């Protein structure tokens, strides 16, 4: 009897595994078909590099996620990335510093942030060339704005390590007064999360936005999540169409 029960249990496990694999294969097929469909529909050029910047709590992460979902839903392959990417070894050093678990020289931290972007460049290029648009939560602009807000750092020194990174096809700047930003959620215990520091960061961003070689679009982040999303999606669709047949540029070169 017990052998018979064991056989039944084994059979049940086998059937459930078969159904899991069948489901997995089906999902993969649907995914591949989606990419093929979007390629045939849109000539399959390279993807666009879309960056969202702004002060803390401006809504960058919220909008990045919504944008990726909307792009995929409209048949445009897209993926989200964020900087710092805390999953790499360099990212873990940055994370410990931001959480105030370690202390580092300001110069060291700045170079680590930049190295964290450079280490992901091969993966970014590979995805862009496969036609996947990348929606990036903070990029070199945050790196430069934050370090240059510290005393004794010139904008030029801060920009240097990031010269030559893949150039964004679109930089969406979510503009929000630091006082309004601080009301969106309490600033946490991480470094840099004070209104005074954020005010200086904002001035540095304003300086960077004067660069006409980049496609900056300033968005009023005080609007509702849905209103912002609609605006961001429109800008992004235009950038994707423009980027399709252009080579990937080099930042600040
Ligand atoms: N347009 C909006 N109006 C009101 N609240 C918003 C809006 N967008 C986002 N929020 C809320 O503000 C908070 C911060 O949003 P989010 O995490 O997206 O900002 P962020 O710019 O990524 O912040 P951080 O710089 O800390 O990563 C969240 O609680 C979010 O729900
Ligand atoms: Mg965020």
TrEMBL record:
Its EC number is 2.7.4.9. Residues 52-232 form the Thymidylate kinase-like domain. Pathway: Pyrimidine metabolism; dTTP biosynthesis. It comes from the Eukaryota. It catalyses: dTMP + ATP = dTDP + ADP. Keywords: ATP-binding, Kinase, Nucleotide biosynthesis, Nucleotide-binding, Transferase. SUPFAM superfamilies: P-loop containing nucleoside triphosphate hydrolases. GO terms for biological process: dTDP biosynthetic process; dTTP biosynthetic process; dUDP biosynthetic process. GO terms for cellular component: cytosol; mitochondrion; nucleus. InterPro entries: P-loop_NTPase, Thymidylate_kin-like_dom, Thymidylate_kin_CS, Thymidylate_kinase. It holds the Pfam family Thymidylate_kin. GO terms for molecular function: ATP binding; dTMP kinase activity; nucleoside diphosphate kinase activity. Coiled coil: none annotated. Catalyzes the phosphorylation of thymidine monophosphate (dTMP) to thymidine diphosphate (dTDP), the immediate precursor for the DNA building block dTTP, with ATP as the preferred phosphoryl donor in the presence of Mg(2+). PANTHER family: THYMIDYLATE KINASE. Belongs to the thymidylate kinase family. HAMAP family: Thymidylate_kinase (MF_00165). This is Thymidylate kinase. It comes from Conger conger (Conger eel).
């Amino acid at each position: 009897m017990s052998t018979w029960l064991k056989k039944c249990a084994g059979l049940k496990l086998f059937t459930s595994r078969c159904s899991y694999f069948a489901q997995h294969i089906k999902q993969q097929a649907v995914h591949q078909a989606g990419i093929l469909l979007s390629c045939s529909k849109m000539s399959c050029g390279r993807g666009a590099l879309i960056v969202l910047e702004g002060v803390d709590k401006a809504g960058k992460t919220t909008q990045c996620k919504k944008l990726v979902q909307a792009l995929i839903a409209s048949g445009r392959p897209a993926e989200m990335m964020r900087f710092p990417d805390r999953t790499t070894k360099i990212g873990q050093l940055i994370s410990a510093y931001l959480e105030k678990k370690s202390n580092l020289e300001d110069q060291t931290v700045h170079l680590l942030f930049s190295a964290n972007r450079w280490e992901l460049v091969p993966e970014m290029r590979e995805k862009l060339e496969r036609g996947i648009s990348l929606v990036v939560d903070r990029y070199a602009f945050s790196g430069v704005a934050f370090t240059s807000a510290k005393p004794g750092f010139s904008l030029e020194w801060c920009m240097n390590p990031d010269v030559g990174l893949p150039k964004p096809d679109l930089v969406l700047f979510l503009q929000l007064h630091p006082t309004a930003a601080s009301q969106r959620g309490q600033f946490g215990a991480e470094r840099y999360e004070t209104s005074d520091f954020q005010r200086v960061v904002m001035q540095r961003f304003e300086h960077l936005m004067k660069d006409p070689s980049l496609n900056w679009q300033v968005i009023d982040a005080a609007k509702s999540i849905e209103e912002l999303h609609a605006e961001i999606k429109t800008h992004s669709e235009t950038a994707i169409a423009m980027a399709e047949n252009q080579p990937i540029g080099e930042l600040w070169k």
